[in-house]
Design brief:
The structure is a single chain. The chain is mainly alpha-helical. Helix content is about 35%, strand content about 5%. The protein contains 2 helices and 2 strands. It has a two-stranded antiparallel sheet with strand order 1-2. A hairpin with a 2-residue loop joins strand 1 and strand 2. The longest helix is centred in the N-terminal third of the chain and has 23 residues.
Length: about 90
């Protein structure tokens, strides 16, 4: 299979057309965003205690559990298997 369709050189005229199209898309996006109503609110929750108290919770429906397990890449005896990630400070 040839990868030639994935990359090719473009001439100056094509570069200018690409730049114009990119600018048109960005301007259109900017115009659409400017019409969005802006609401600034404080994301703050008033609590008497610093930690949330865990409740008893509810048992998930059998259908939900089946769907989750079906969508999981790998399961083991009714549990989703996942690789433990490594913490990377940035």
């Amino acid at each position: 299979m040839s990868d030639s369709f994935l990359w090719r050189k473009v001439n100056e005229q094509e570069k200018q057309e690409i730049k114009k199209e990119a600018k048109r898309i960005m301007d259109s996006f900017h115009k659409a965003l400017s019409r969005v109503e802006k609401k600034v609110s404080e994301a703050r929750v008033e609590r008497e205690e610093c930690e949330r108290v865990e409740g008893e919770g509810e048992e998930a429906s059998k259908e939900f559990r089946e769907i989750m397990l079906k969508n999981a890449p790998e399961t083991d005896n009714g549990f989703i298997k996942a690789e433990k990630g490594e913490w990377r400070g940035r």
